[in-house]
Amino acid sequence: MGIFSFLKKQKADRAGAAKAVESGTSDTPAVAANSANSETATGANSETISAAKPLQSKLGRTRGRFRDNLLGLFRSSKPIDADLLEELESQLIMADLGVSATQKIITSLEAQAKAAKITDAQALQDLLHAELTSLLRDVEKPLEIPDQSTPFVILVVGVNGSGKTTTIGKLAKQLQDGGKSVMLAAGDTFRAAAIEQLQTWGERNQVPVIAQEMGSDSASVIFDALQSATARGIDVLIADTAGRLHTQAGLMDELRKVKRVLGKLDESAPHETLIVLDGGTGQNALSQAEEFNEAMELDGLIVTKLDGTAKGGVVFAIAEKTGLPIRFIGVGEQVADLEVFEAERFVNALIEKEDVA
Ligand SMILES: Nc1nc2c(ncn2[C@@H]2O[C@H](COP(=O)(O)OP(=O)(O)O)[C@@H](O)[C@H]2O)c(=O)[nH]1
Ligand SMILES: [Mg+2]
Fold it and tell me: How many angstroms is it from 60 CA to the middle of ligand 1?
């Protein structure tokens, strides 16, 4: 990106820019890291730039794919009639919105077309924008961490590769920047690499990580971590978990055991069970949300990789089907690439007509 377009983008998104400044001046974390060799985050500069980018450009190809097809429709001088709505319907389904979210939207647009509220392509686009936003408003419930005397426990679940460990790293940094002391628990004991990956994130941000060797009991690692977090007066404990065991049933049993065991130390823990979903996996993400929700009673979700080739429509499908709060979205691999989910901002970034750059 050229410096001019970068400056323009920066101007266009004051919120994003403010965030970059904030994270650039964050104080030393209140809690010292376990590990001595805490490195300064590598590529800090690129991370700052990344944070200053508006959501639009972070969404990248996802945005491109979502809007190009739709905007072609709006640019055409076709009359607003049943044919056009049918075309819109298939575009929305192709964008991964899923049948039932699409149907809801089209039914409402049809009614408004009948009432002659839609007179031209612009009006149709505005109404679609409003429909999409209202669908997401129901799940726009940011994670709130109350002040409490014991650690607020966040249990992070989801299949392998969905972005759990990366998201935990990003979240730890955000919470820390917000003044919370954070501890991580390496509960994905199935893979050695998963433990190391969490430790690397911990070292990078000077967040203590409680871990045991590969193959140890996940519930006991997380139990130990909660004991340690309590003893040290930590504000937030974030626990990583496995995304795959030998069997899927085994995984759900293990996760339920983690919940039970936490409840023995603090009956209100975990306070937040979050699923991380890879936005690029379309309808699979949706079935994962449903399956884990059934087994775990989720409190919310995070959709990652919306900067990639994901079709943004999956976010609407998940919202409509599960009704679960979307706490954050992941828009890249850098530490700053985690955004609090905001319905209107997301829809704007996906289909707003004008490019800001
Ligand atoms: N582009 C992109 N990559 C991501 C995002 N979140 C995670 N990843 C990448 O996805 C891969 C799997 O992530 P990881 O955290 O190990 O997933 P886990 O198995 O669920 O713990 C890694 O290469 C991450 O860098 C995101 O929001 N955007
Ligand atoms: Mg992992």
Answer: 16
